[in-house]
Structure formats: structure tokens, C-alpha cells
Specification:
Blueprint lengths: L1 H29 L5 E3 L14 E5 L9 H7 L2 E2 L2 E2 L2 E4 L10 E9 L4 E2 L2 E2 L4 E5 L20 E9 L4 H6 L1
Antiparallel strand pairs: 1-2, 2-10, 3-4, 5-6, 5-10, 6-9, 7-8
């Protein structure tokens, strides 16, 4: 009985060490936490799908290129111009983060259609959505609200996380 208990403790400690190494290494490489997220909605179809796992890097480690800039530079990420970012709506950490494309950067007072930007930040939009996120989901996204810039995806393995999340 005691040897079984010691074996179980050894297995738990080993697992915690491995998870710690993976988490610490991921944070050290990417500069952000979490450094990977599972796509939860179809707002980024057809370029990102529900269940895709997307790896992120800190906006401190990668310049964010907007759709407008990407079109000029012929820079594409995930099937369209510009970078995809994960951000906290209005900086609120109690809300589910949003993964959408950075369309343009605006200054406070700039007009985008009928909307007047309330602060400096990124205008964002899901690739599948008809309208921009501002002002409905968030004010223009400040850099400090950005969790990370999407750089890589693994299709569909995030379903496991979504089932148990």
C-alpha cells in the first residue's frame, strides 16, 4: 500500500514538473500568457475554425500589422491581409477574450463610418463578420488589452479544451 502511494506521488510530481516546464518555456519564448488559445466561435471562418489551437506571441515581440498596412505590403496571415490578435474587450479580464483581425489603427476622435473613436487603438473585425467590433464588442483596442498576436495554428485539437473548458 505504501509503495502504491509513493508511486502515485512520484507520478503526480513528475506530471507537475513537466507541465511547469512546458508552461514556463512557452511563456519564456512567447512573452505572453496564455501563449495558446482555442478558437471558440466561427467569427474567423474561413481562416480559423472552431477548435483550432492558435499560438500567440506578445505584441512586444511582434509588430502588429493591420489589414490596411498588410494590403499595402502584401503581408497575409491566416488567409487574409494583416495580423490576427487576441484581446480583452475594453481591457476587461472578466470577459472572454476575442480573436479577430486588426483592421486599422485609429487615434481618438477619428471617424470610421458613423463611429467616432473614443481612444487610440486598433479597429478589429472577425473575417466572417460583416461589421467591425467597434463600438459593439469593444472600444478601439489599446495595446495593453492585447494578450497576443496569432502566429501559428493547429487545426481542431482545441475541441478537447472546449469540451472541458
Amino acid at each position: 500500500m505504501q509503495s502504491k502511494l509513493m508511486g502515485l506521488i512520484k507520478d503526480v510530481v513528475t506530471t507537475l514538473i513537466i507541465v511547469g516546464i512546458i508552461a514556463g518555456g512557452g511563456y519564456a519564448l512567447t512573452g505572453t500568457w496564455p501563449f495558446m488559445v482555442a478558437v471558440q466561435s466561427g467569427s474567423m471562418e474561413p481562416n480559423l475554425h472552431v477548435g483550432d489551437v492558435v499560438f500567440l506571441v506578445s505584441p512586444e515581440k511582434k509588430e502588429i500589422i493591420t489589414y490596411v498596412e498588410g494590403k499595402l505590403k502584401d503581408y497575409k496571415m491566416f488567409g487574409d491581409y494583416g495580423d490576427v490578435i487576441v484581446y480583452r474587450p475594453n481591457g476587461d479580464s472578466s470577459k472572454t477574450p476575442i480573436i479577430h483581425r486588426a483592421i486599422m489603427y485609429v487615434k481618438k476622435g477619428d471617424k470610421i463610418g458613423n463611429y467616432v473613436a473614443e481612444n487610440d487603438g486598433y479597429i478589429t473585425k472577425g473575417d466572417h463578420n460583416l461589421m467591425i467590433d467597434q463600438p459593439f464588442l469593444s472600444k478601439p483596442v489599446k495595446k495593453e488589452w492585447i494578450i497576443g498576436v496569432a502566429v501559428f495554428r493547429i487545426p481542431y485539437i482545441g475541441y478537447f479544451r472546449l469540451l472541458f473548458g
